[in-house]
Amino acid sequence: MKENPIRSFPGIPVVLLQLAAIAVCAWLMLTTGGALPVLAVVVALLVAFSAVGLYMVEPNQAAVLSLFGRYVGTAKENGLRWNNPFLTKKKVSLRVRNFESGRLKVNELDGSPIEIAAVIVWRVVDSAEAVFNVDNYESFVHIQSEAALRAMATSYPYDQHEDGQISLRSHPAEISDRLKEHLDERLAAAGVDVLEARISHLAYAPEIAQAMLQRQQANAVIAARTRIVAGAVGMVEMALSELQKSGVVQLDEERRAAMVSNLLVVLCADRGTQPVVNTGSLY
Fold first, then answer.
1. 42: which residues sit within 8 A by CB, 6+ positions away?
2. Residue-range domain boundaries for the chain
């Protein structure tokens, strides 16, 4: 089922013709006798029936027309329009719409329970598919959006564990693109185009939030320590290299090891160290 554009007649001229016909019928009924009043009544009934063909189409709205259950076409001309009175008219909004899904509780790729929600921006691009392919396209969009969000959330971990791995928390742009792909696949049959899909809420479930916070803090501490040690080793290498280059002091292997140990303690310590100044000989 694909959308088929159909033309409609302007409604204002039709209304003027109907009013003129009603005025003529009223004049005939009041001023003449015989068969003319009966004819005027018949004409007035036909004019009243033709008024059923009038309908209003607002900007970014479409009217899906069907005749005795058969799809005829879609009229998109704005304003007051007129078509066959026997046609059934179903209004469909083509405006951009958005909604926020409820907070879903799902298990991410590693099996940890998380809470996730998303904002979906969408619009109808094929009115015929929206009306005839699904029972209620608005409800269909909401239900399928939650199903797509749930399926996407179970395909990725919450945190990144390896370099290059896509995770829910560290790659919001990529996750939004993947969610939009899932939605496009599910909603294409309803004539709906997803303009944007992004995560609006992401958190661990309350029952494991504290434990996961401790794990994140531990990972942060390890990462910080790793960077501090790497920097300290580089500074020690630079200090030894400069001392050897300038020839200020010559250190044997034992003293070199002691100096390296002392420098690493100073550079890697959590608190400020208290140095002991040696005013005597080196040895």
1. none
2. 9-93, 97-204, 215-268
Note the CATH number of domain 97-204: 3.30.479.30
What the block records as the tokens of 125 is 């691009």
CA 60 – CA 73 distance, rounded (Å): 17
120: closest CA among 136, 134, 106, 140?
Answer: 140
How far apart (Å, rounded) are the C-alpha atoms in residues 148 and 177?
Answer: 12
Q: Using CB atoms within 10 Å of the CB of residue 128, give its burial: 0 to 12 exposed, 13 to 18 middle, 19+ buried.
A: buried
Average confidence score pLDDT of the chain:
82
pLDDT band at 171 (very low <50, low <70, confident <90, very high): confident
Q: Are 55 and 92 in contact (CB under 8 A)?
A: no
Q: Is the pTM of this model over 0.70?
A: no
Is residue 141 within 8 A of residue 92, CB to CB? The reply is no
